[in-house]
Amino acid sequence: PIELEKNNVDSSSVASGRKAYLHWCILMIHGSDLSSGNEVLQYEPPAPPIHSGLHRYFFLLFKHTSNMTAVQLHDTLQLCSQRNNFPYAHWAKIMGFGDPVGVNGFYSGWEVDY
């Protein structure tokens, strides 16, 4: 199974020393069909505050080597409830993830900022 998450690494919470803002999380995706997974956090489109500069958004894919345990599911649901200040490194550790198997990113911002 595959896990997908989208985050904003330039949110105001990151600038103040906190963690990334979580925009989306889907667990237990089979193959390349996103609808086969469990969406634990609905997609939230990019919406950086005006005059906050460019924001970097990343989609990260992680591969599970085994099925998620009940404890991992419970912890993930608890952590995903924290869109703002999402503790990405802690989550990756409790899930047993290594490096992402896929990464894609983009910038978003207000034209008046540049």
List segments where confidence is low: pLDDT < 50 over at least 5 consecutive residues: none
Order of helices and strands: EHEEEHHE
Tally of individual helices: 3
User: What does the radius of gyration come to?
Assistant: 14 Å
Tell me the strand order in the biggest sheet: 3-2-1-4-5
The main sheet comes to: 5 strands, antiparallel
Question: What would you note in describing this structure?
Answer:
- With 114 residues, this protein is α+β, with helices and mostly antiparallel strands.
- It is 20% helix and 32% strand.
- It is built from 3 helices and 5 strands.
- It has helices at 12-15, 70-80, 88-95, and strands at residues 2-8, 21-29, 38-41, 55-63, 102-108.
- The protein has a 5-stranded antiparallel sheet with strand order 3-2-1-4-5, with no helix packed on it.
- The longest helix is centred in the middle third of the chain and has 11 residues, at 70-80.
- The termini are far apart.
- The model has no long low-confidence stretch (mean pLDDT 82).
